[in-house]
């Protein structure tokens, strides 16, 4: 409501554009909250397996960062190279969405035929995101109407038009423009131009190219000439990299080099490593006595015939791996 009131009294275009952008972002957030609330009301209660006392380990959430957003534009040859034909100018920004978390980029204004792409320097970070996330980016634009007036024509043509129009015609023109402005909606209106949907499979430490789905705009004259692709970097850092996932005592029975038991050690699973210390106190100020890397190729195999709960961690197909035992199954899982 406050943004709407501010939008109604804005007298300068930059102010009205920012107010309209804030209003659109707020409406999208409110819509997302209402959708999530309705989903939670109608969803079934989760069921739990009561036949076992073993705690289930949920997949680690992550921080998702989006940066280096760039979208190429496609103008006609005469518009871009000969600098004539299309005098439109656009103001553009993006909404970035994951679930109910919605962020907006800074707005880039005065995008015209001289520009080959639209780029944003923002770095947007989403926190506590599950592994099966869906990231959606929406591109919004607004045609800067002032740039379709005489202000955007070459100086010589503008001078000729100004000198040739009489005062009477000028008054009629001003009157018609005033009536047209008064008939508009309050503030500038942003139009959804395109969107893209990405997931965990699209994450990378480098900028990658993705498809951009261009929307059908009611008035093609107000459509931003997008090429249909975008470049961005979607980085994902699991919380387990800097947060402890599991901890407890385990006994190391065997190592890959055939060494015997190392006794009962305090273990912490963190940063894709299972680190072991002689005691919990040692883990606070001493380096681990043993570190077992956990990668996507690591395999866990229950050991048969052991007197205790035993698990073999295989980090290489040709290795025997580490054999660990626990006093009870919950400690091992």
UniProtKB/TrEMBL annotation:
Q: Which domain of life is it from?
A: Eukaryota
Q: Where is the Anillin homology domain?
A: 61-203
Give GO terms for biological process. Answer: actomyosin contractile ring assembly; mitotic cytokinesis; septin ring organization
What name has this protein been given in UniProt? Anillin homology domain-containing protein
Q: Which Pfam families match?
A: Anillin
Organism, as annotated: Ixodes ricinus (Common tick)
Q: Identify the PANTHER family for this entry.
A: ANILLIN/RHOTEKIN RTKN, PH DOMAIN-CONTAINING PROTEIN
Write out the GO cellular component annotations.
Answer: actomyosin contractile ring
Q: Which InterPro entries match?
A: AHD, Cytokinesis/Rho-signaling, PH-like_dom_sf
């Amino acid at each position: 409501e406050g943004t709407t009131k501010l939008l109604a009294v804005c007298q300068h275009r930059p102010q009205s554009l920012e107010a309209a952008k804030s209003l659109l972002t707020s409406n999208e957030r409110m819509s997302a909250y209402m959708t999530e609330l309705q989903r939670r009301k109608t969803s079934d209660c989760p069921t739990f397996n009561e036949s076992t006392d073993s705690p289930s380990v949920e997949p680690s959430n992550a921080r998702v960062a989006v940066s280096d957003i760039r979208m190429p534009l496609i103008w006609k040859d005469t518009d871009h190279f000969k600098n004539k034909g299309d005098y439109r100018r656009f103001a553009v920004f993006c909404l970035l969405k994951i679930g109910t978390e919605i962020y907006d980029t800074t707005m880039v204004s005065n995008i015209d035929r001289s520009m080959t792409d639209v780029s944003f320097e923002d770095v947007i970070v989403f926190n506590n995101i599950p592994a099966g996330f869906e990231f959606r980016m929406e591109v919004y634009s607004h045609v800067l109407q002032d740039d379709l007036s005489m202000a955007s024509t070459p100086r010589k043509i503008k001078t000729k038009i100004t000198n040739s129009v009489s005062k009477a015609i000028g008054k009629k023109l001003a009157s018609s423009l005033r009536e047209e402005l008064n008939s508009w909606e309050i503030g500038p209106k942003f139009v959804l131009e395109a969107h893209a949907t990405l997931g965990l499979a699209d994450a990378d430490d480098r900028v990658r190219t993705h498809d951009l789905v261009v929307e059908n705009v009611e008035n093609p004259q107000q459509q931003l000439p997008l090429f249909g692709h975008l470049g961005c970097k979607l980085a994902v850092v699991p919380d387990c990299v800097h947060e402890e996932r599991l901890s407890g005592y385990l006994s190391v029975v065997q190592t890959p080099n055939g060494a015997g038991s190392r006794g009962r050690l305090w273990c912490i699973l963190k940063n894709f490593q299972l680190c072991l210390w002689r005691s919990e106190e040692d883990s606070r100020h001493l380096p681990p006595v043993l570190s077992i890397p956990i990668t996507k190729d690591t395999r866990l195999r229950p050991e048969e015939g052991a007197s205790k709960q035993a698990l073999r961690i295989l980090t290489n197909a040709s290795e025997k791996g580490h054999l660990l035992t626990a006093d009870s199954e919950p400690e091992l899982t």
